[in-house]
Amino acid sequence: MLLANYRSNPKGERAADSLYYLGQALMKLGQPGQACKAYAELEAVYGAGIRVDLKKQVADAKAQGSAAKTPGRARPILAMSCSGQRVSMLTVALARCRGGDGR
Question: How many domains does the chain have?
């Protein structure tokens, strides 16, 4: 639905938000590579026109690079961020506690 919203009206008021939330959904589904593509497209298409609050959310999401919790499996100790850096899950958990993607 998020991708359909973006594709049907890429100049719409909520199109940039749709790409951001698509990235968030992909991260939660354990697809950080695809999430990073959504964030990259958001930045490439909307660039300087991205709202300040959304720009911060995208930066935080890219820095976290959190892996989705998979039932019945242990969580990885390290996650990969969109920039390719390894990020400890403790760092991700602390960021969530401080208000980053803790929804």
Answer: 1
